[in-house]
């Protein structure tokens, strides 16, 4: 494979610290972000940071959260393609490229997903010159399908919804029998873990500088692929007292109770423990009701007057309209719940993630309107009180003891032995040596990317 075939893209280090990118490339990338989304130089905009190298985030007003702790939300909507999932999509593809396993012009890329990862795969493949086939359930928001097709991705739809992701995995395994098809398997490939532990984890550590005591007391994330929650491994290294809470739909509480059901939180809760979920660092599993997430999104999107009446500064209330999607609301409600459960005070920080913005959820709010009799301001005021201000700390399951974690390890075995992984490999994941060893490989990949580009 000739070196000049490797697409030109950033290292892990450059995604965390965009100020280390060559100045002319950085300037070009920032210009392309506004001018041309499909210019390949946008690969160098895959970062949590803005043009001043500050983490893009918002500290939610206490008039919304109702807790003393600071709820710090990192904003994924500013990534190219509108979601941070573009980061693991790129990392998985570039690692395959520099390892000589994925060759431009020869291989078709498969992206199993319930949405944002699929959009990220279609986008990255467009920029890097690959054909993409996105495998996803046939009951997701139509904005997701349109976005994938707009980037030139093909759709291969499996029956079911958000919580039937196992069917997309089975379909991926079927398609990858053809050696021309290379899956970017977000649920099982460790570049997803590396991206989030290194880039998202260290960005989270930077995000709390100058806020409260400058430490992270808790990190909340709803596992879809369980990539994002890997940030917790790096957070715990910096702040050993930090608690990591995995959030699940109340309607599909597989990790917490082995429960299975349909739910409306697109991008999370997959009736499984994903292969790359490091359950050693998961302290709590917390359940969030899907309807609360959709109604919460309605409040932040359309309840500007209600928020102002509650005491939120008008410019802040206005700025919240487009920053979140349904899973972002799930993460925020989980952060509020954990702040209450852990009895956190004004110096404490809870960090969470908004994977994407509102641009892919119009149809979700349309659907809410269809099944809701009234949505006047007085209704939104009641929702604000019930969902945010009076949030309870129920349905928080403690998994800190090793004997309790056994339930999570067994769920992982049940889910992944049928896909050909050995018990020996799964058992190796029961030690931090495995995860730290996998994490450290980001250094080798940075060297390879530099040499080959």
From TrEMBL:
It comes from the Bacteria. GO terms for biological process: alpha-amino acid metabolic process. Pfam families: PALP (PF00291). InterPro entries: Cys_Synth/Cystath_Beta-Synth (IPR050214), TrpB-like_PALP (IPR001926), TrpB-like_PALP_sf (IPR036052). Its cofactor is pyridoxal 5'-phosphate. Keywords: Pyridoxal phosphate. Residues 70-356 form the Tryptophan synthase beta chain-like PALP domain. PANTHER family: CYSTATHIONINE BETA-SYNTHASE. This is Pyridoxal-phosphate dependent enzyme.
């Amino acid at each position: 494979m000739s070196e000049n075939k490797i697409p030109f893209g950033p290292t892990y280090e450059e995604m965390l610290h965009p100020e280390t990118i060559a100045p002319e490339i950085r300037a070009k990338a920032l210009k392309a972000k506004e001018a041309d989304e499909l210019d390949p130089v946008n690969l160098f905009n895959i970062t949590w940071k803005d043009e001043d190298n500050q983490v893009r985030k918002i500290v939610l007003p206490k008039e919304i959260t109702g807790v003393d702790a600071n709820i710090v939300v990192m904003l994924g909507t500013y990534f190219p393609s509108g979601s941070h999932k573009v980061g693991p999509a790129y990392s998985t593809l570039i690692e395959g490229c520099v390892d000589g396993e994925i060759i431009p012009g020869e291989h078709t890329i498969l992206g199993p997903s319930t949405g944002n990862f699929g959009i990220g795969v279609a986008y990255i493949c467009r920029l890097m010159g690959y054909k993409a086939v996105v495998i996803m359930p046939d009951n997701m928001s139509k904005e997701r399908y349109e976005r994938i097709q707009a980037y030139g991705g093909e759709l291969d739809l499996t029956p079911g919804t958000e919580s039937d992701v196992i069917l997309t995995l089975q379909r991926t395994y079927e398609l990858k029998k053809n050696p021309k098809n290379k899956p970017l398997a977000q649920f099982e490939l460790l570049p997803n873990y590396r991206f989030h532990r290194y880039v998202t984890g260290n960005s989270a550590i930077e995000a709390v500088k100058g806020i409260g005591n400058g430490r992270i007391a808790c990190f909340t994330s709803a596992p879809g692929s369980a990539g994002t929650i890997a940030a917790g491994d790096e957070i715990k290294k910096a702040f050993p007292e930090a608690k990591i809470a995995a959030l699940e739909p109340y309607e599909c509480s597989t990790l917490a109770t082995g429960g299975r059901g349909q739910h409306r939180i697109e991008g999370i809760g997959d009736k499984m423990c994903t292969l790359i979920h490091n359950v050693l660092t998961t302290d709590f599993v917390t359940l969030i009701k899907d309807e609360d997430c959709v109604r919460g999104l309605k409040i932040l999107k359309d309840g500007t007057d209600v928020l102002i009446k509650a005491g939120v500064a008008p410019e802040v209330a206005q700025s919240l309209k487009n920053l979140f999607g349904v899973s972002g609301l799930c993460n925020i409600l989980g952060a509020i719940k954990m702040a209450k459960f852990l009895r956190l005070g004004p110096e404490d920080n809870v960090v969470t993630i908004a994977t994407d913005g509102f641009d892919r959820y119009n149809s979700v709010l349309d659907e809410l309107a269809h099944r809701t009799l009234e949505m006047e301001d007085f209704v939104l005021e009641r929702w604000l009180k019930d969902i945010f201000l009076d949030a309870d700390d129920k349905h928080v399951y403690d998994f800190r003891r090793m004997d309790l974690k056994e339930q999570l390890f067994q769920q992982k075995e049940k889910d992944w032995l049928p896909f050909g992984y050995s018990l020996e490999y799964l058992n190796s994941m029961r030690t931090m040596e495995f995860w730290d060893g996998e994490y450290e490989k980001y250094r080798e990949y940075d060297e390879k990317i530099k040499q080959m580009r």
